[in-house]
């Protein structure tokens, strides 16, 4: 795909996600989180392209958090953003030292590092009076997170295209939620973005995420439709066809006749009372 067609595809997918989740409204002041990675450069460009032609008016402010990693090239992003003529702000907070101090040597630092980064960005968002915070997560991030949660946390959930932050103060949007990662990689190559690698900190890669990434890349190679089917399945949830008793009232589904009949021996209304035990780990055969 050449640059023109790729930009068309990227803006089409982002515009669809923005419309489906009503991510952007007239008068929004959007903080675009820019890490220096391919996804965040792609996000900023796509939002700029949409800004130029969208029927609603919204403002973009690029924000980068300088986490004081050794070797961080602090001139790269300001120069890039100055050239584009985009409003921006560089925040400085030495989260690198905090992570190094708190975590034992050799431990993967990304989870704590991301939490600290999110806290710093949210505080800045409140101070700057922005209405939305845009993050560069893409379709494959959503799918990886879905399987990470299933495989390692026994829960069904991902990073949603739009959410309210836990403290209730911010609305976070992910306009690239429908965009395959390979498009963003190709876009970054064609546009020659000045990529700053995330692992300047020397952190080990998250092995579990890397394993899931390999798995979904293999699926994509085998059947290019599969990842979009997984994405669409996240948008087509049947709570009554899953098994979460907190999300669906299975208990009130009662056979009219059976539920009205008392147990013939005990006289109890529900013959399973007292027999139900918590589900334990499956015994080995
Ligand atoms: S690679 Fe380093 S900078 Fe990037 S998220 Fe992980 S710990 Fe943070």
TrEMBL record:
Keyword Iron: yes
Residues in tRNA(Ile)-lysidine/2-thiocytidine synthase N-terminal domain copies: 30-191
TM regions (residue ranges): none
EC number(s) stated in the UniProt entry for this protein: 2.8.1.-
Name of the molecule in the record: tRNA-cytidine(32) 2-sulfurtransferase
Reactions that this protein is recorded to catalyse: cytidine(32) in tRNA + S-sulfanyl-L-cysteinyl-[cysteine desulfurase] + AH2 + ATP = 2-thiocytidine(32) in tRNA + L-cysteinyl-[cysteine desulfurase] + A + AMP + diphosphate + H(+)
Gene: ttcA
Record organism: Natronocella acetinitrilica
Residues engaged in binding [4Fe-4S] cluster: 110, 113, 201
